[in-house]
UniProtKB/TrEMBL annotation:
InterPro entries, per database record: Nuclease_put_TT1808, Restrct_endonuc-II-like, Uma2
Chain segments annotated as transmembrane: none
Boundaries of every Putative restriction endonuclease domain copy: 22-197
SUPFAM superfamilies documented for this protein: Restriction endonuclease-like
Gene3D superfamilies assigned to the protein according to its UniProt record, in alphabetical order: tt1808, chain A (3.90.1570.10)
GO molecular function: endonuclease activity
Protein known as: Uma2 family endonuclease
Organism in which the protein naturally occurs: Aerosakkonema funiforme FACHB-1375
The UniProt record lists the keyword Nuclease: yes
Length: 218
């Protein structure tokens, strides 16, 4: 291990941005000691987030996922979901969102490997979602910049503590808040929030039946 990498590793604090070279970032990412971490890199800084293990984050993740998948399925929209997948532009950036989606008729799906998806070869996902149980400020801040510059079309931030969804449409590396999805046309963000609120008192079967009925009628 180089002296600079050793210094970064020794002083590394999770869930915050730390100055590091691309080579140091990749080396730490390949270190088995950090295999449960989520890795981000942007403009000379890296961030390692330790995976949330509590039911709050995992349930919000599950419910949000089903809203997107059920809506696309019942509207005959082509969709592929990836959970905790890494997307990399070598030497420039890397991100690993909670949920990401390729959506539409024309996307080319990356191969089934355990290596980060190469954004120099494949398009970024159309939709990226972060479930914020402890990282809301960063999800609305620096990560939003990462997704703007990566070419993601739409970004949702789920505030798990409030069952609130803040959604952004991204165009020409600029984002603006929206109330209805553009990549899943007709899906109101308020409905995503209602599904999250229902999860406080309803089991998955109840929520699933409500989603199917709602999407079938509208």
């Amino acid at each position: 291990m180089s002296s600079s990498l050793a210094a970064v590793a020794e002083n590394l604090v999770t869930d915050t941005w730390v100055k590091a070279s691309w080579e140091e970032f990749v080396a730490l990412g390949n270190n088995p000691d950090w295999e449960k971490g989520k890795f981000f890199y942007h403009q000379g800084y890296m961030r390692i987030e330790m995976a949330a293990v509590g039911p709050l984050h995992s349930r919000q993740n599950s419910v949000t996922s089903r809203v997107a998948n059920f809506y696309a399925t019942l509207r005959n929209i082509r969709i592929v979901e990836l959970i905790n997948a890494s997307f990399r532009r070598t030497g420039v950036s890397e991100f690993q969102p909670d949920l990401s989606y390729y959506i539409g008729a024309d996307f080319r799906l990356p191969p089934r490997t355990n290596t980060p998806i190469d954004l120099n070869e494949f398009d970024p996902p159309a939709l990226v979602i972060e479930i914020s149980s402890t990282s809301l400020g960063d999800d609305l801040g620096r990560k939003r910049l990462i997704y703007e510059r990566a070419g993601v079309q739409e970004y949702w931030v789920v505030d798990a503590s409030l069952d609130d969804v803040i959604a952004f449409e991204i165009s020409q590396r600029r984002s603006g808040e929206i109330e209805e999805s553009s990549v899943l046309p007709g899906l109101g963000i308020a409905l995503v929030e209602e599904a999250l609120q229902r999860s406080q008192t309803q089991d998955d079967g109840e929520i699933n039946r409500w989603l199917i009925q709602t999407f079938s009628q509208s």
